[in-house]
Write a structure and sequence with these properties.
By secondary structure, the protein is an alpha+beta fold. The protein is built from 11 helices and 9 strands. α1 crosses α7. It starts with 6 loop residues before the first helix and ends with a strand.
């Protein structure tokens, strides 16, 4: 699928190629010396809308929702809510506040605020993009599809060098993938279009579910969370996509329940569905009461 890309968007991507793993803090991505923070945010969100980059962000200002206000009016002694959760809701009870004004220590603040937002108890008023990374789709687009045209004297040789290193690394990766193997069972990651990374077996017999141990699944959860920047709140649909077709829906559900019983993960339900498609929500684990289990949290 092709689409237009302006010069600033292209330079943003080429700047990103100069960082390790094509991942870097947004304030260090400067397509032009005079590019403002607002322009960087616009570029990042525009490229993210086309699935070429992904980013992590922090809640900088928030307000309480009607559900949060309703909770404050209840007897919270028997409710599964922490003292820190209550402190945030009480601080925001009258008006929108900054994240710092919640009084929560900075090291734990964003995780707690995101948890409250996921449960529909607070609503972010302002967010700040912190880190940006190139997605598998972005790599695929730059490697296989993008064709520049015309002339533009503003592209520097440093940006060209970033692109050439990216292409050479892609070629070396492809050569290693195509090299003959000795027939030993190898489960490795590879990219497959917009579906991202999938796990596949190279030069061996059919892969069976028993070859994926619970610890392997736990490591894949950690890797996905890091790659997607989900801040230890990984939606289950990402894991299902990664492990298809090697684990059925029921097999993965059982593996997640086992990890939960071992206190290695927690499973959290979805409260606000507006940010997800019906297919993504359907990938959760249904419950008899309430919304589906939707997020995976590594403990």
């Amino acid at each position: 699928m092709g689409f237009d890309m302006d010069v600033l968007e292209l330079k943003f991507l080429l700047e990103l190629l100069g960082f390790p793993d094509y991942r870097g803090p947004i304030q260090k991505l400067k397509p032009n010396p005079k590019t403002t923070a607002a322009e960087l945010n616009r570029l990042c969100r525009s490229l993210s809308d086309r699935l070429l980059v992904a980013y992590s962000s922090e809640i900088t200002q928030l307000k309480i929702t009607s559900a949060g206000k309703a909770l404050l009016s209840l007897d919270t002694s028997n409710l599964p809510i922490s003292g820190e959760d209550l402190a945030v809701l009480q601080a925001a009870a009258e008006s929108a506040i900054s994240a710092a004004a919640t009084g929560i220590a900075s090291g734990n603040r964003q995780r707690l605020l995101q948890s409250l937002a996921d449960r529909g108890l607070i609503e972010p008023v302002q967010t700040q993009i912190k880190e940006v990374w190139l997605t598998p789709r972005g790599e695929e687009y730059l490697r296989d599809e993008y064709l520049p045209s015309g002339s533009n004297p503003l592209l520097s040789l440093d940006l060209l060098a970033n692109y050439l290193r990216f292409m050479r690394k892609s070629w070396r990766h492809q050569e290693r993938e195509e090299a003959p193997r000795d027939g030993t069972l190898v489960l490795e990651a590879s990219y497959s279009g917009t579906s991202g990374m999938i796990w596949e077996e190279k030069n061996a017999g059919p892969l069976v579910a028993a070859q994926l141990q619970d610890e392997d699944i736990l490591q894949i959860i950690r890797d996905l969370d890091r790659q997607l920047g989900t801040d230890n709140y990984l939606p289950i649909f990402h894991l299902r996509q990664r492990l298809q077709p090697f684990l059925s829906r029921e097999e993965l559900n059982l593996a997640l329940y086992r990890l939960q019983r071992q206190d290695k993960i927690e499973l959290s339900s979805l409260q606000e569905a507006i940010a997800y498609t019906p297919e993504q929500i359907e990938a959760g684990i249904p419950q008899d009461i309430g919304g589906p289990l939707f997020f995976i949290i590594v403990t």
